[in-house]
Amino acid sequence: MAKGVTKQSIDYAKWYTDVVLKGELADYGPVKGTMVIRPYGYALWENIRTAADALFKETGHVNAYFPLFIPKSYLSREADHVEGFAKECAVVTHYRLKNDPEGNGIVVDDEAKLEEELVIRPTSETIIWAMYKKWINSYRDLPILINQWANVVRWEMRTRLFLRTTEFLWQEGHTAHATAAEAHEEALTMIDIYRKLAEEYLAMPVYVGEKTEAEKFAGAEQTYAIEAMMGDMKALQAGTSHDLGQNFAKAFDVTFLNRKNQQEYVYATSWGVSTRLVGGVIMVHGDDKGLILPPKVAPHQVVIVPIWKSDDQKARIMEKVSEIKRRLQARGLRVLVDDNEQTSPGWKFNQWEMKGVPLRIEIGPKDLEQDQVVIARRDLGTKEFVRFDMIADTVEYLESDIQQMLYERAQKFRDENTHTVKDYAELKEVVDKGGFAKGWWAGSSADEEVIQTETKATIRCIPFRQPGGQGRCLYTGQPADKIAIFAKAY
Amino acid sequence: MAKGVTKQSIDYAKWYTDVVLKGELADYGPVKGTMVIRPYGYALWENIRTAADALFKETGHVNAYFPLFIPKSYLSREADHVEGFAKECAVVTHYRLKNDPEGNGIVVDDEAKLEEELVIRPTSETIIWAMYKKWINSYRDLPILINQWANVVRWEMRTRLFLRTTEFLWQEGHTAHATAAEAHEEALTMIDIYRKLAEEYLAMPVYVGEKTEAEKFAGAEQTYAIEAMMGDMKALQAGTSHDLGQNFAKAFDVTFLNRKNQQEYVYATSWGVSTRLVGGVIMVHGDDKGLILPPKVAPHQVVIVPIWKSDDQKARIMEKVSEIKRRLQARGLRVLVDDNEQTSPGWKFNQWEMKGVPLRIEIGPKDLEQDQVVIARRDLGTKEFVRFDMIADTVEYLESDIQQMLYERAQKFRDENTHTVKDYAELKEVVDKGGFAKGWWAGSSADEEVIQTETKATIRCIPFRQPGGQGRCLYTGQPADKIAIFAKAY
Known about the structure:
homodimer; alpha+beta; BirA Bifunctional Protein, domain 2; Rossmann fold; Translation Initiation Factor IF3; 3 domains; 11-stranded mixed beta sheet; 5-stranded mixed beta sheet; 14 helices; globular
């Protein structure tokens, strides 16, 4: 842990893994593809979750919990969904183990074979709509605005901590509505909540828009997404919201008596963000020293490092440290005191910089005499002396300034690396040297596929904010009335 | 939902299921043994979880997340643990499905068979200790005080919602210590936190004590438990805390360099409470009208039911209702306004009584004229008129009074139905007519087994609070220095 992380410019992927492992955010689990989220990483996730949960509840959503096990047959009910999800799944076939009759530990009991295999949920539309069928009879039962916080499993051979693991944590909203318009509105409301979560809490600027036919969710009418630019100029899909139309209601035969006294299929949405957001925070803000955390979600917003030589100094300094801690906590700040005697102040500075704590307060014998502390900013690397009676105000101000600064810095980086392209040659050039390419688009799914094969870039979204007017499609040269954003993506 | 629940005296088990289903706390999932926790039940669980989580964090614990999948071989590492847990497990054998070549939906892809089968965690000691081996080198790395909130799976054929389901939600703490004494102390600290959670938040009095050899956790040196009495006089084990000694450290070869510079096995504890607590709350407080929720964990602490006939009345009443709601929320109270126009006030009264909301505020045109509302208590069924300007104070007082009253009522019920027994005949009589039997105990595990076979009662715990002195064992007649508590249990 004492050693630093690989420089971004030397190997960005290695830098990322170093930050995650050395910053003690996560570790590899014993089963290939699995991840252990360590306390520091989990505290970050908890803060993101708390923020998201409050935003959901403010907009009338409630939490619930549906089973992990989905009967295999459910997955094949919705035709597109089965293509998208039924493949790389963990399958439960037995429900009992027994002692090996030959004495080698335990073995699967062949007599305990399930009649129908169970799939560990890769996403819960199917099981939730099977339940909604029981609960929905009339328009009076609608809307249902349910969210669940859960683990899901999608078998992955190539693991990337937080970004691509076999099991991950997420939330999935599943709503049911009486009209197409209301479901559509809900899908848009939720993508805007994700935008707010990303921009206001994670300080992560995002493009908000619609997915193309080729990129949308398996079973959706329309998929909306927020797309962020990482430090290596690749895109991260950070959240999606789907207008599912009547597809799942039809697959699970969920009808309701509408106001005209007619049976009608229910309209649906689903939407989710996951622990992937932690990966996004790392890659949007991090630098060669490690992580830089936005104050709103940082597990520790301030770390206090006391410095002393004699026991007498220690007693006096720790008394002051307790007072400072109390004052900061009284403002609702999350404060950690690192008074570990096994490690030096210099080592602590490095460690907490690597772990991205927004502010560090240093206080030694001289500071005590002079009625001051040193406050160091993680984002700019600057230090300033602050008088005791000004500490709480200063910290509060700086936390808010850092939150703002991180957003602006990320936005500037993204905007500088988003290039308008006129034709395919320009697109290739941009994608090749790194960055987002935006340009007029009127191509087909087949065209997208060719572009992906040739450049590895995909359409991240058709952004809601459009310039208006018309142009020529960068690929087909046909008239186009929409701009699309292309990039390589995680 | 309009119809009431079965009377407790007619069929207690049916009463319980009615409360859960009609109160919309939970529903049966499509796979046998699984449960869907509906929003109202989940909100109750969230409040319990929030209270517990705060108690854990106050005592220095942090949250983390470990994988769902445990390699089969891990379960057999600790000899007792495998006996206790390895049997009724969900086993993942494959990681892919494919389209049925004969066109019948999807089938398991035989080519995607795992080399080693994976078990869905029934509890996480094994996988967590496999990770602790990577993280622990020296006494400086200790203690580790980790908790996780997770789903676990233990295959069950007979389902009872919240009490016994194949998948359930829980928290499991897993701590690692440098000395036996510190681990022992931790196990005791946590059982006391569970007592506090049960008594102060759930208004559920509990006996706190030690499990016998026969009843302790598979792999533990000692198991401590909190045991509550349900409305049918059966016991519910509501939480357990285990001193695991060095058993898991030895099984997973986890040693640390101690202060004397010697390698030593690490000492461990684990402890957990689950969604079973929801079942406990239902059965400790509920009555023939349905649920009665302790205010500290009730999803809605007050429901306001406005009553009107004309639109003009409606406008004036709803204005007042908004004001009352705002004032109560300003006190931090959880308030629901039921202004549904599809249902009558009488129907709403019944519904919210069934759902156990502690207080109901009724306000109609006459009340408005007279500057008052009616406040009804769910626990006592009493009603009183309260002046507008006294509403917030009165509600606050009543919530606290109900919390207290529920505890006292449950304690009185438990104490009245806990009988001191001198001999086995008396024990049989108590257990037969219902209740807890307490008496001197010096029997063996074999004796316990006979008693269980003959009476269905087990030793719930050897309570920490002992009368002192000696007596004669109720079963063997031998000298005994401890009292044990026997009961039939869920």
